[in-house]
Amino acid sequence: MRRSRRRLLATGLELAVPILVLVVWGLASAGSDTYYFPPLTEILSTFADTWLFERVGSDVVPSLVRMGLGFGIAVVVAISAGLLLGLSRRSRRAAAPIVEFLRAIPPPALLPFAILVIGVGDSMKVFIIAFVCVWPILLNTIDGVTGVDPTLRETTRVYGIDGRDRLLRVMLPAASPQIFAGMRTSLSLALILMVISEMVASTNGIGYFVLQSQRTFAIPEMWSGILLLGILGYTLNGAFVLIERRVLRWHRGARASALG
Amino acid sequence: MPDRILPWASVVGVLALFDVLPRIGLLPRDHFPPISESLGTLGEQLGEASFWEAVGNTLQGWALGLGIAAALAIPIGIVIGSSGLLYRAMRGLIEFLRPIPSVALIPLAILIYGTGLQSKVFLAAFASFWQLLVATLYGVQDVDPVASDTARSFGFSRVQRLFRVTLPSAVPYIATGLRIASAVSLILTVTAELVIGSAGLGRSINVARSGGNEELMYALIISTGVLGVLLNGIFVRAERRVLHWHPSQRPGEVGA
Is the complex ipTM higher than 0.85? Predict the structure, then answer.
């Protein structure tokens, strides 16, 4: 009885605290005449005016398309390269110093390079997003493939499964939990690079809008953009977790039964 | 080819490729100067005071951001993580705030802190904070319940349990968190320099590009990469030293 009451209290708190924070923010900012911190109600009404749905076509969609393309390209490139590198120890050794170096460059430092070589258009943004998202997925794929259970590896060999089947039916599924972990890291990187690339060189997009609002001192608009980016980050992460759970359901099931 | 020289061979190969391709015109030379010229420029830069000043500025932002994040996130993580009820109460809030891209706060940072060091540090600290907080929370909750209960039944007080049981088992998580937070802090520092224009390597790269000095741009990009490798190396080494007793650091086992 005490236990269940405690659990109820915990769940209640989990829901109540974020709401409480919002309420406190709303109350504290209510009569605010500080220029930089407008009342929450004003931010919310600006949010509704700006993002529902006036600027969806002009800013939100272009942003999401760039991000989706960049992330998609990174997933395809990184998983294919990761599978190949994962299977050959020698190629892994040869690639290691280059991967380690490219990955260590802080991604925004590559923006001027991308602008120089590709220009300021959409392809530059897609390129930089893809380039940055490749590394976490690549390294996780390599780890996943090299970490495949030796028994599974040898069983595959004994049964003469090789070539395409070995790659796509044994290695890829066995590595997929790790690959998903990498993809999740990359997804948040994609959002960050989308915002930065739009802040540095763009004429539309959410990142552009937020920085432009600040420069023109449209403070409630700026806050509404920050809020939108927050909601976007949260939603993308949540959606990804749902997809991951669906796709990896067999994995969780297999682990649970192995643990008894 | 023996295994040992493979990494060297590939480095030399890639460098040679990016030196030869622009020279024979397969890569446009005004966008890709031969890599030897960029490396030469990097060599010259090593003797310039302005270069070291930029490196110093970047490192300052990195260190302050990481330091502030660590000073806040580790104690907060320990307090929240040690109490089940407090953890549940804060979980929703943390899960909501954590995925917010820190770069969304750039305009706010400019408004409040201007375009100098403070903005840089604020962004770096904000971004690293979440990495470290989550790592600390995981660490504190991963404490072996048997060890914890044993300590309790031997009459260890709450504080003693914290220092003797909880912290030692959370340290590997915190160490990994610190290493990732260090990379995040460097990224946000360079971002701030690039977007806001605070002094440092990020701004220098942008200035070199808009000034049409490609060799310098590549030289500076390479130097940020070297900086990233060095900082990461320092943390890996420190981890190995501090955690030499931990299974993850033993040779032959899969390390973190």
Answer: no
